[in-house]
Specification:
This protein is α/β, with parallel strands linked by helices. The protein has one domain: NAD(P)-binding Rossmann-like Domain (Rossmann fold), CATH 3.40.50. The chain is built from 9 helices and 9 strands. Helix 3 runs parallel beside helix 4 and helix 4 runs parallel beside helix 5. 41% of the residues are buried. The model has no long low-confidence stretch (mean pLDDT 88).
Amino acid sequence: MGKDMQKTIVITGCSSGIGQVAAADLLARGYRVIAACRKPEDVARMNALGFTGVALDLDDAQSIDRAADEILALTDHRLFALFNNGGFGLYGPLRTLSRQQLERQFSTNFFGTHQLTMRLLPALEAHGDARIVNTSSVMGLISTPGRGAYAASKYALEAWSDALRMEVRRSGVRVSLLEPGPIQTRFTDNVTQGEPGKPVRNPGIAARFTLPPEAVLPKLRHALESRHPRQRYPVTLVAHVMSVLKRVLPGWMLDRILGSH
């Protein structure tokens, strides 16, 4: 891509996992990657690796506004894509979680995403053929004991993405959801547990279906580069199976499957 043709993408949650792998892949494909990270040391590392690092804490409205101002200045108010990937998991039985903990889960996984997207939306619309890709989860399709808070934040993201997709369609902005199942990243290490003494762990069978973060790359490329991006991209067998089971099984049977440990 020539400098004038180079497409700029903003990626949140770039310090590890899906965000880091996506940033490296898209840089190699010729994109200009603005890599948003919460920690200053990660921002510096992104700059050293050839990305444009930007400090962004999705749990902090002022931080989001500062980052958005910086991104708009860097892109001259014209942006090809936004990959809303940042977030974390709050696990634990609902009775162990406080209102404040739930507010932080939604602040990072949902409210921050809304604020950043709305600030950048005019720059995306100015591009004329822009993309917004949101990292949801298989937990945006189904909820299980101990993951109610995280699933609720992803259910919200799914509904928000559906509304946004219809609202911006005429402006040439396309909105897609990535729905990973078990992916081997530091996400699980960074989970906040409501009951540290009784951590919620992935069931043993999940390990058999866990894929590396690179598994999202073909889906992400399609969402960004296809003339007809899909609304949803399940990633991993678990996500594909659950999206089917949710449609075909009666609720009581799904409860029995998902509620058993």
